[in-house]
Amino acid sequence: MLNIGLLGLGTVGTGIVQILEERKQYLENLVKQEINISKVLVKDIDKRRDIKINKEKLTTDIYEIIEDDNIDLIIEVMGGLDKPYHCIKEALNKGKDVITANKAVVAKYLEELTELAKERNKFFLYEASVGGGMPIIKPLKEQININEIQEIKGILNGTSNYILTKMTSDNLDFEDALKISQGLGYAEANPIDDIEGYDTRRKLRILSTIAFKDKIDEENISCYGISSINCDDIRNIKGMNSTVKLLGTAVVNDNKYYANVEPVILNQNSYFGKVDNANNLVSFVGDVVGELRFFGEGAGKFPTANAIVSDLIDITANTYPRNCIWENKNLNNINQLYEGKYYMRITTEKEIKDKIEGYIIDNRITENIIENKDSIAFTTKSISKKKLEKVVETFMINSQDYFIARLEV
Amino acid sequence: MLNIGLLGLGTVGTGIVQILEERKQYLENLVKQEINISKVLVKDIDKRRDIKINKEKLTTDIYEIIEDDNIDLIIEVMGGLDKPYHCIKEALNKGKDVITANKAVVAKYLEELTELAKERNKFFLYEASVGGGMPIIKPLKEQININEIQEIKGILNGTSNYILTKMTSDNLDFEDALKISQGLGYAEANPIDDIEGYDTRRKLRILSTIAFKDKIDEENISCYGISSINCDDIRNIKGMNSTVKLLGTAVVNDNKYYANVEPVILNQNSYFGKVDNANNLVSFVGDVVGELRFFGEGAGKFPTANAIVSDLIDITANTYPRNCIWENKNLNNINQLYEGKYYMRITTEKEIKDKIEGYIIDNRITENIIENKDSIAFTTKSISKKKLEKVVETFMINSQDYFIARLEV
């Protein structure tokens, strides 16, 4: 009998219970043992829930689960950072396999927890931490056994993609689109991780570390979000027959790599440009297999629970792909050298806009001035982003009053 | 030591030898044993080859490989049908694992060879038979452990997709596009399997059988190809702001399914519409995970060899997903009941065209007549395809003188 300790009974935790219940017989035939959720960590035992679950299984005491020698495997879907990290560590130390959906924990402690799991000869799996229901961690780990991955990029955050989709299709302003996405349960009450790109950065950190077989730190991934985008930007971008997406990109060449998260203006009919609502798309390029792309629902109760149950099956059947140890190539970050073409919009007083226009022309930054009315918007030649940051500094523009996106059209 | 018997040293076979050579150390570390291609079946031992290989390993006698008790695993990339089938069967009977890229064999003998492998407790894997380098067989087998698959569709044949891409982008006629694709090595000297849809049908037979956990026979998949498409069709389709792709589609509902291979007219900016050249795209919808899409190069030396080496790693590490036995649901085929909107073009004498125009109006088949000049082309209301076959019969139209595509716009 496989005894599971489930940490968290929110949306995803409930989905896991439902899948394991509904497909109980099939899954037990498959893994040739009984599957039993023996204990569930909750905040409030008496809370009304949508599913039937034996109250005796519920506990508010994490140690009742971690110290229970009958529990073989922990599924962590409680959210947060420090507490789940300690729980996962303790569980591995106690000889339990661990599955988590927690991208914050994985992004911060990937190497440590992977190493610990290896020492204890246990699994530490986290398919649900990136791409929701889309299988991406496992396929990537499989492909790196045959391929050198040269590039990985993705639309990795459902919330920000939903907001950009709504702003574009329904001409909504940012705040209204955000509110709708919160109403649908996509965005958190505090959506900063989604809209500032931090969530995308965590996922890119995880994917690029696996892809490049070297630790790619979050601090080495430059990060711009979408919180300052407005209707003028959407109108300007549409005027370029384009669309805008929050993309995470990491590219390696020789021993150098760059990695960034930023809004990117794309042809509206390109593959990435066509990914709408809360969907995710990840593409990577291997030297043997060429480009592979994976598309799926980036979040949601059942897709996320599906990814966790996939990991559970692999652990129980012992079918998870093996990998050689990370090669620790000590790749050099060259973000500082990266140059691209950009779109920039600044909203400020008329006088300053005119000065900015002079400045960007004098400094040979601009390729095309799109407008100088309500705001000034322009596209650049291929430059370092630092030159745009210099504009902002020079004219003391508030972070909410400008928007920068890379041009990939 | 893992001893491999390689059957065939053509393009894909050569690619396998190269990958195993170049990544020898990594792969041997990974699977914790030496990997040795011990014998290779070829047609001509003295043929000049692009790779260095010890001539003593080459043989023209299949039994020298199959009867060799030191050989643990067979990779079949020789092509054909009867001979590779017998080789695979014999190899499994002799207790060897088998990997094949041969979609014809897999389509015809999937159940028998799967069953035989199971009896012998050996692997019979065929990732390379569908989608080239794109992982699709394994992800699908993983998802069916959690999901009921409701629909699967794909652009599954690189050659026909390349031809349609060239006809559309370069305004080539069919014969010229076919010649270019043959020059690039995509199409066989006899391209009938590609252009008549038979190759797509085989792959759909394989995927839908796995997806629906029931044997979906080729004879239950209706099949139309692209061999009669001409420049008029491309022009008409472009006039509808659309594009045309050869799609395999299988949909199940309750205990009923329909499955077909046919040209489909799609919005040119849709996901399937955007897949160009020899690329493949497969989408399937599960009740838990939602829609997943997989994109990759549909053919080619290294992508195909990549898929085979993936299977090899899974066999050696014993990490291939387990599945419960097919459920043999005895699904009912309802292809006959399927109704859709269609585009049809018929090229014939003026007199007959006018009679056809009268016929399709009288029989309330048509929704819109696109042209009645060089040829007659029209779109239909939602009808059974049989009504269009009736038109062809009634006016005794030669199969090369008409083209039918389903409308999905």
TrEMBL record, chains A, B:
GO process annotations (BP): methionine biosynthetic process; threonine biosynthetic process
Coiled-coil residue windows: none
E.C. designation(s): 1.1.1.3
Annotated binding of NADP(+), by residue: 7-14
GO MF: homoserine dehydrogenase activity; NADP binding
InterPro entries with a match to the protein in the record: Asp/hSer_DH_NAD-bd, HDH, HDH_cat, NAD(P)-bd_dom_sf
NCBIfam families, per the entry: PRK06349.1 (NF004976)
Claim: Transmembrane helix is one of the keywords in the record: no
Highest taxon of the lineage: Bacteria
Binding-site positions, NADPH: 103
UniProt similarity note: Belongs to the homoserine dehydrogenase family.
Pfam assignment, any one: NAD_binding_3
Signal peptide range: none
Binding site for L-homoserine: 188
Name of protein: Homoserine dehydrogenase
Catalytic activity: L-homoserine + NADP(+) = L-aspartate 4-semialdehyde + NADPH + H(+)
Sorted UniProt keywords: Amino-acid biosynthesis, Methionine biosynthesis, NADP, Oxidoreductase, Sodium, Threonine biosynthesis
